[in-house]
Amino acid sequence: MSDSGKAVAPRSGVADVARRAKAASRLLAVLDAARRNDVLLAAADLIEEKRAEILLANERDCGAAAQMVSEGRMPQAMFERLRTSERGVSQMAAGVREVAALDDPLGRELSVTELDDDLTLSKVTCPLGVVGIIFESRPDVIPQVGALALKSGNALLMKGGQEASHTNETLIRLWHEAINSFADVPVDALHLLNTREDVREMLALDGLIDLIIPRGSRSFVDYVAEHSRIPVLGHGEGICHVYVDRAADLKKALAIAFDSKTQYPAACNAAETLLVHEAVAPQFLPEMVAQFRRARVEVRGCPRTLALARSREVIPASEDDWATEYSDLIISVHVVSSLEDAVKHIHLYGSGHTESIVTEDALAATTFLETVDAAGVYHNASTRFADGFRYGFGAELGISTSKLHARGPGGLEGLTTYKYLPTGKGQIVATYSTGERTFKHKRLK
Amino acid sequence: MSDSGKAVAPRSGVADVARRAKAASRLLAVLDAARRNDVLLAAADLIEEKRAEILLANERDCGAAAQMVSEGRMPQAMFERLRTSERGVSQMAAGVREVAALDDPLGRELSVTELDDDLTLSKVTCPLGVVGIIFESRPDVIPQVGALALKSGNALLMKGGQEASHTNETLIRLWHEAINSFADVPVDALHLLNTREDVREMLALDGLIDLIIPRGSRSFVDYVAEHSRIPVLGHGEGICHVYVDRAADLKKALAIAFDSKTQYPAACNAAETLLVHEAVAPQFLPEMVAQFRRARVEVRGCPRTLALARSREVIPASEDDWATEYSDLIISVHVVSSLEDAVKHIHLYGSGHTESIVTEDALAATTFLETVDAAGVYHNASTRFADGFRYGFGAELGISTSKLHARGPGGLEGLTTYKYLPTGKGQIVATYSTGERTFKHKRLK
């Protein structure tokens, strides 16, 4: 809980914090862009200035975490994500500055329509209001999402992992210090929640919180969606495919498939299944499988894959394999008879996250891009590019496999909505319903 | 259920229909705009051609409904909404043609970013997929939502009111006839469901249906949201306000407040509460109240309102009144001390639907438009303009008080999402994570 919230009794604590955040969000929404950026730049400076403090707090968290790893109560990978460094802190500050440098997401006129003489309808972007975000261990989340929230005029309730509590508390303190250097910016804009009970309470506040972003396992995202009426931005599974077309440049295909699987296998945008056109499979698969095996990737193949690869290198895939997100150095391989078969396989087993075709045939590429229903549909590029930073959003809010609101990697736009602002000279609907006047509906923008 | 679905056993019926709709949606998504419009124009022609058939079916529904009204089992207002006419049928056809004439909502490039040399990210609109819509009595819904769905490349499961079943079956038959005149358009694009049990089944199909639009009472929308994991586009309450500022043109204020309340009191965009600045209340309220009373509008006032109006004309308002959607010829009136007080009242009691300020003071208008958090924030215009037709969307899908995805009146845009389409030359992420290359992130569009 934020400094200012410490005195509040835990039971009603989160509702109270959310109410203050809501009030703060009203003030943030009308701050001008320059002031919102001022806060970000002040925070970035403070992060660098207080680097030693951040690293000390992180040391404490890592000390406790190392103990847990040695006792087998924390996976090594989680420990790695928790640890930051001199360079890590610099990157936090740089990330915040990058968000400050982005275009203002608020007050953008999405359209302007002349409904009639002197009656103009504009559609303008505005903040969502109050956003709740729940995340684990990584200490760079607070600088990132804090920057995105303030840049887009939203208040934020954050709940980090217990294992990063010292680091997170230090970072939120720096945000509050940055905010407090501007009298017109409300310190209630950013709050840190402490316990799982806090999260449970937050999920019930559907009148006060406009969006929940759970970053974590699929089961956690499901839990949040089941236990809250607040809209949820999150993703289910990332079952991504690379399809090597009959007209693929096989060198590119080797590189893209390898990168999509191995560059960071735990990521949701890593490939789980490789689809290979039968025309190129005999030439492509032996080399691809050998490359995977050298990198200790387990390969599970369909019968045709088994027939083409040396038997010791490929394990038979079961039906379940096509629907599994391994998040690990395992890949399933399926030989298909056509591009249409590849698309069918993707629509049957894919999770609508990221799908890539490797081909030199422009028509095949266009067909794939138009036909495949996913947040990202790629041509000759690794699925691992599906990421807010790589897309140029400055920071990432999370990746959504929902089709509504934000789809794919979410940045500032995921934190905005819009409102319709008609301005008239006293017009009433009766004039139009009687036919005295008719609408013009002239699109001005 | 559609013609083609009649043979299916009811238990598994809806899932089967949804699966066929999903397959149809894949085909619709890649139809070109001209063909999608062809279907709409063919349907419009058929609606006019088969006018007598539609009217006959409507007669049958109205006959049964009249019986129910006489037995007190159906409200008169529902009967009125059910009945169509020669002119009503012409308007159905005209509405479908209007949607056909709108710009293509698909394949619009929302942005293009050069991530690096030869690696371009475009963000392009595409259909949602399969949409379920549940509505009551009004026979013009099927032409409207059918047109919006096909125009935007979506398949549709529709469930109309039992009372309109003959009219709805005739209209869906005409849609199927229109679709069948084009070999490349799948007839499974539009389905009519029959029973409440069908609706219950549909709500469970979160893998197959992308969006549910419940049009009906708030309790019905709540029921759907509680019983489905499919995203819901709908609105809760419409507690809309007209605020008469100290700098209001009182003639405009009289007309706007009167229209907002009385032009169609059952609509969600009708005003429920009138807020009046204390500086103009003594001059404005007596005339306003008199005008309302002449139109048999019940007026419920705060103590200051009671003091300003003749006592017999105004009933004292209770705290509950400020939070009530009357949907009837009742209005609550509150005198406020400032624009800030008006905004506070709106944020405390409003439902985020539509709010209007009447003022000649440009600064007051700007403050109101920027500060008020609602789907529509109006200046000098009636709240009753909040409507898809009046906004120029050609038809209306429903009005959303959610901030996510579609906010306010929804048209074609509410039925689209987008996908990211990066095209490269074989790029992999490893090249960037090692620092060998860095991103350019040059916004091209």
Structure write-up:
2 copies of one chain form a homodimer. Chain A is of the alpha/beta class. The first copy, chain A, has 2 domains: 3-233 and 411-418, Aldehyde Dehydrogenase, Chain A, domain 1; 240-385, Aldehyde Dehydrogenase, Chain A, domain 2, CATH 3.40.309. Helix content of chain A is 41%, strand content 21%. Chain A has 15 helices and 17 strands. In chain A, the strands form 4 sheets. Chain A has a 7-stranded parallel sheet, with helices on both faces. In chain A, strands 16-2-1-17 form a 4-stranded antiparallel sheet, with no helix packed on it. In chain A, strand 1 and strand 2 form a beta hairpin. In chain A, helix 2 crosses helix 7. The longest helix of chain A has 20 residues, at 10-29. The interface between A and B is large, with 74 and 74 residues.
- Which consecutive residue ranges of chain A, at least 5 long each, have pLDDT under 50? 1-11
Question: Domains counted in the coordinates of chain A: how many?
Answer: 2
Under CATH at level 1, the class of the largest domain in chain A stands as Alpha Beta
The largest β sheet of chain A comes out as: 7 strands, parallel
CATH topology of the largest domain in chain A: Aldehyde Dehydrogenase, Chain A, domain 1
- The tally of helices of chain A reads 15
